[in-house]
Design brief:
Blueprint (H helix, E strand, L loop, with lengths): L4 H7 L5 H21 L4 H29 L4 H57 L13 H14 L3 H28 L3 H29 L2 H19 L6 H4 L8 H33 L3 H34 L4
Helix pairs in contact: 1-11, 2-3, 2-4, 3-11, 4-7, 4-10, 5-11, 6-7, 6-8, 6-10, 6-11, 7-10, 8-10, 10-11
Amino acid sequence: YLLSSPAIGFALLRWNCRTLILSGLVLIAFGQLVFAAGRTFPIILFCARIITGVGNASSEIAAMTLVSRQYTDHIGKCMSAFEVCQGVGWIIAPSFAGYLFESWGPVAGFSAPFVAGALLSMLIFLYTLIIVPHDLPTPKPSEDVQQDSIGFKETLRQMYNPRLALTSLSLFLYSVALNSVFSTVVEDAGLGSRTGGELLTVQSILYIMCGPVVGYLSDTYGCNRALISSGLGLAAVCCAMLGPSPLLRPLIGEQRQLGQPRIFRSAALTLALLGVSEALVVAPTYPELIVSCKLNVVHSSGPLSALFSGTWSAGEAVGPMFGMVLVENYGFPW
């Protein structure tokens, strides 16, 4: 996903969003079927995940670009709706996959979630093929390929814009922090996978609830930097409380175990506030990137969608490794 994002951002300057969405859905379905069939072959499983990652990047980045090109005056609201739908999927999919695995047994149950995912991808493919029109906003036909390349180069040149670079760095660091916490909090709590999943679901629910409100504030008042800054500050407080951080020892005394009921409730509340902070950071970031780039939305939305998705994915890759290193060497509170 991360490696293919720049190429997809460049392709969106030349090709229609609809084409890349459909291509990505086909790759996702194919990768899921290959993964389901190659249960005992690690190389096949690895290749299948690569195919799925490229398809996911293609469909997600193209969909984000399509939304930003269609609703240029309501990007904040559309992005919040985009993230809310993704959040609902993150809540439903693990439970649904777990149900299929338990219902079909250890052999067929391994393949069942991936076959279901492939079928769902093809249903979305048919829906997109029928509903999404062909004549979508793309770089003007009168502009030749060289002009498209110039637009892409201009976008790359804007990466040296301090405001754009700072916004991207903020998103990356937030993604690292959030994913490092999520990858270690359940293990530190000594919880089962089901209870731990319910604990993390609290965060997703608050994220879904707050996303539309943040999108409305972003579009109405244009206070993207204030929203992002407040979200980062809230996340810092939540992480300090969740540990709890050794820096808070003078206030809370000795460290306590997260598995205790009272501390478990405190962790649930803290993760809920992390959901609020995620909405404050993620929803206004893409509108802020577009404002910072100062280029035509039609030309900049593709590369900026790739930048947004790639930056978040980089944090998802680095965060768990960073969290595990800290836990193994310094303990969860750090």
